[in-house]
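2024-03-11 09:14:02 INFO receiving multi-entity request
2024-03-11 09:14:02 INFO entity count = four
2024-03-11 09:14:03 INFO echoing inputs for audit
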Amino acid sequence: LDPQLWHACAGGMVQMPTINSKVYYFPQGHAEHACGHVNFRNCPKVPPLIPCKVVSIKYMADLESDEVYAKLKLVPLSGCGNDDAFDYENDSVVAGGISNGSDNQDKVLSFAKTLTQSDANNGGGFSVPRYCAETIFPRLDYAADPPLQNILAKDVHGETWKFRHIYRGTPRRHLLTTGWSTFVNHKKLLAGDSIVFLRAENGDLCVGIRRAKKGIGGGHEDPSGWNPAGEN
Amino acid sequence: LDPQLWHACAGGMVQMPTINSKVYYFPQGHAEHACGHVNFRNCPKVPPLIPCKVVSIKYMADLESDEVYAKLKLVPLSGCGNDDAFDYENDSVVAGGISNGSDNQDKVLSFAKTLTQSDANNGGGFSVPRYCAETIFPRLDYAADPPLQNILAKDVHGETWKFRHIYRGTPRRHLLTTGWSTFVNHKKLLAGDSIVFLRAENGDLCVGIRRAKKGIGGGHEDPSGWNPAGEN
DNA sequence: TTGTCGGCCGATCGCCGACAA
DNA sequence: TTGTCGGCGATCGGCCGACAA
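2024-03-11 09:21:47 INFO inference complete, emitting structure
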């Protein structure tokens, strides 16, 4: 999975350390994200935080939901629990290296839009914000009437999706029509979920999705749905 | 899962031992049905057959395919490998007890039909053989024009399916129309698969399915599709 | 600029009797 | 008796511009 697409799907709030950088591993924080309850009582020697070095990073995407996640391999920097051997004041910890996939962002453009009811209704298509159509999508021949093209986009699994991109209506607007509802149904998208379009360095168009936060009070989103992905 | 419905779905060729009856357990035969290869070389002491007593039987149905299977709990009758302690000549082994669910068959009627192309095509409904409609389905009021009724049938999971049963056409024939294609699509039925209707002792109508044999030369079926289930 | 709506057209679903095996 | 077919009417998917936020 392309790290650029991965970061575009994960959103600008997600930062990843670089290989060989130093980080803290928080066992309790990790345990809180486990599926089942993790009981530390039987192993009371677990320290609250463990200085580690990042050995490897695998950018992954769930096969069913397309949601992105990462596997990090961490190696403790000092002997177990011997915190004194580690320099807490060293800024290189945590700040040792951060990558949000935007190192060459001048070349990698991405855009995220939260789906409206009209986008998610199987009654029709997808309203493409002008910014997205003009900066991410392939150039449209505006001499045609109406201007239209077929666009191909690869998802996080490398699967290609085909959409009909048309510029029509009064006033004119960009729309995805044929192919869109197939995508919505197959990915089980609902109003509130987000879609990410990304133009890779090689010119390929990619598409990712970001599920709406479930649970209570999950994340405040800009209600305008204007989320240029990958920006701070 | 009702043993009567289970046997109707399994078909007349399937016989089950009764609880406490004596049977032979064939480890090699069992291994041949395992998903992966079972290697007996590391345990060469496994005898070719082991006399056992049937301790429990659970009638099951696969949650996805509706295919029926059973879990048997067997207890060896003698010390491991000491075959001499067992009376091979005793007819009670294997013949100790057989149940095919037809103990009170005079009350439990069932019928199986192999689906034709016309039945499985989502273009329409299901041609109900007269015998099935008249002996398994609820009585139809032939005074109406055309005679029709809604029938409810429980599948192996206890889920209820609704079908419109109508007697129409020239010449007259029994059909299932509304509700049938929903059932076919949900169960992913194909031409060649079989459907089983069963009238339980309490009068409830039940429906089961029997997938077509895959693989090479799998089972010769009566091409007429006439398979009164549960009969010898 | 773009979200929602009603109109409308074409495709598909599915009910029907005709006909024949 | 029942499997297959063509017809056809109802429903639905989905493309469209109008309109307003």
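2024-03-11 09:21:48 INFO post-check: The helical segments of chain B are 3-10, 27-32, 92-95, 117-120, 130-135, 180-187.
2024-03-11 09:21:48 INFO post-check: The two ends of chain B are 22 Å apart (CA to CA).
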